[in-house]
């Protein structure tokens, strides 16, 4: 469990810390999302003293990632947070893939479905006691090659050797520290999440991933999966928020999905949303020039990716794994200068994970919008296939009609 604030070893007072130059913690982590929690837990497991600063006592009830794979759960297991995460997750064992308007594949695939705020709160409750948690708003941050200091709005001050910024999309601390964010792709993805009228039995333990049937319509795919007792739907699109396609979907979600995915409707029936439809536009942003003394930026705070291909949590946890692997060497020698910090951003695993996620995000968007040669070819192939399939269906129907007609005249 979290250490309660009462057990906080730092004096809680409005007066300045009398010995601010003495690092009290090895690691100060700001942000209690999946990245900050995992890093705090991983560092504590290495024997580091860790202070976690959260903005709130619980994660806001917002729409975020709702699935990840067994490899992400294995990383949480490695930090000691897996038991908590599993307790609020629905295990999925099979993925069924629909493409070009028909089922094409069914294969074993271990994943977990969850509501992100519940996942994060459960992980937070499972933090080791070696992590001291405090909740508050940071009013000032000073960083350097030896010591980092955070001051909260109520005057509490905390010092540490390393500051880890895991604040997701929150920009306040980044601005305070002088980081600049570059907008890579504004309104890159528009994601919808909703419960459906399907019964749980339809997909017990299985998830369906149904790709857009017509190319160039700005849809990536729809995924249906059991979450708790519901069949949940996530629709990933590249529509501009408030644009014609987005408005048409909100006005008639079931009809729009039937029109965009007629093969899905034929196979499973109409996808009828139940209750509120959550929607979230996502910008792709990244930090420019991140290397500086004493501070590391991880997870969405470093860069965001298109959620359609499940690279957000994977990339956040990959940041955690890379950083955790460097900590023993960093703490074995004095100081926390930019040379140490730079080795994190230059780590081959980090570079590969970043390139993969951002590259995939932009390429798949281009494909869904039908904006490059490869996607035009794939879209054409899909159209030819669909038209061919329809011609076969029509011919078979004509044949049946002909046969029935013949038998009617030949008693
Ligand atoms: C709609 C949607 C769907 C998505 N779907 C997927 C998906 O299917 N698969 C996938 O892998 N990824 C998906 N993602 C992305 C994924 O959710 C993120 O990549 C991941 O949650 C990032 O985790 P994080 O810890 O870096 O940031 P966050 O989870 O945002 O955590 C940051 C934390 O820092 C706190 N904070 C901010 N500022 C401060 C401050 N100054 N002081 C203290 N605390 C602060 C915030 O309150 C928050 O608790 C999706 C995202 C969205 C929006």
From TrEMBL:
Its EC number is 1.14.13.9. InterPro entries: FAD-bd, FAD/NAD-bd_sf, UbiH/COQ6_monooxygenase. It is an enzyme of class 1 (oxidoreductase). Keywords: Monooxygenase, Oxidoreductase. It comes from the Bacteria. Residues 25-329 form the FAD-binding domain. Pfam families: FAD_binding_3. The keyword Metal-binding does not apply. Coiled coil: none annotated. GO terms for molecular function: FAD binding; kynurenine 3-monooxygenase activity. PANTHER family: UBIQUINONE BIOSYNTHESIS MONOOXYGENASE COQ6, MITOCHONDRIAL (PTHR43876). This is Kynurenine 3-monooxygenase. It comes from Methylobacterium symbioticum. The lineage of its organism: Bacteria, Pseudomonadati, Pseudomonadota, Alphaproteobacteria, Hyphomicrobiales.
């Amino acid at each position: 469990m979290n250490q309660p604030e009462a057990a906080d070893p730092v004096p809680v007072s409005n007066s300045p810390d009398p010995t601010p130059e003495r690092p009290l913690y090895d690691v100060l982590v700001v942000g209690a999302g999946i990245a900050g929690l995992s890093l705090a837990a991983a560092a504590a497991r290495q024997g580091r003293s860790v202070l976690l600063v959260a903005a709130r006592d619980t994660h806001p009830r917002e729409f975020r990632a709702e699935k990840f794979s067994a490899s992400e759960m294995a990383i949480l297991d490695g930090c000691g947070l897996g038991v908590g995460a599993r307790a609020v997750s629905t295990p999925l064992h099979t993925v069924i893939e629909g493409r070009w308007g028909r089922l094409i594949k069914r294969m074993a695939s271990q994943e977990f479905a969850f509501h992100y705020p519940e996942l994060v709160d459960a992980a937070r409750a499972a933090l080791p006691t070696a992590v001291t948690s405090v909740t508050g708003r940071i009013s000032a941050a000073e960083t350097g090659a030896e010591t980092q200091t955070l001051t909260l709005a109520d005057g509490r001050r905390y010092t540490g050797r390393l500051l880890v910024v895991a604040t997701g999309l929150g920009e306040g601390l980044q601005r305070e520290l002088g980081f600049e964010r570059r907008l890579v792709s504004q309104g890159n993805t528009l994601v919808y999440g909703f419960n459906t009228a399907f019964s749980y039995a339809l997909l017990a333990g299985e998830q369906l991933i149904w790709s857009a049937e017509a190319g160039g319509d700005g849809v990536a795919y729809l995924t249906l999966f059991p979450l708790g007792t519901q069949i949940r739907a996530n629709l990933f699109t590249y529509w501009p928020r408030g644009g014609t396609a987005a408005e048409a979907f909100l006005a008639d979600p079931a009809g729009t999905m039937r029109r965009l995915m007629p093969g899905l409707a034929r196979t499973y029936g109409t996808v009828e949303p139940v209750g509120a439809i959550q929607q979230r536009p996502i910008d792709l942003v990244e930090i420019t020039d991140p290397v500086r003394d004493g501070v590391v930026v991880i997870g969405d705070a470093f860069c965001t990716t298109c959620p359609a291909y499940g690279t957000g949590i994977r990339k956040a946890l990959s940041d955690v794994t890379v950083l955790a692997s460097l900590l023993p060497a960093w703490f074995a020698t004095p100081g926390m200068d930019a040379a140490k910090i730079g080795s994190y951003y230059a780590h081959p695993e980090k570079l590969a994970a970043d390139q993969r996620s951002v590259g995939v995000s932009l390429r798949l968007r281009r494909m869904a919008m039908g904006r490059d040669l490869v996607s035009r070819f794939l879209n054409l192939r899909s159209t030819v296939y669909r038209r061919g399939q329809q011609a076969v269906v029509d011919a078979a129907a004509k044949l049946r009609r002909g046969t029935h007609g013949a038998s009617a005249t030949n008693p």
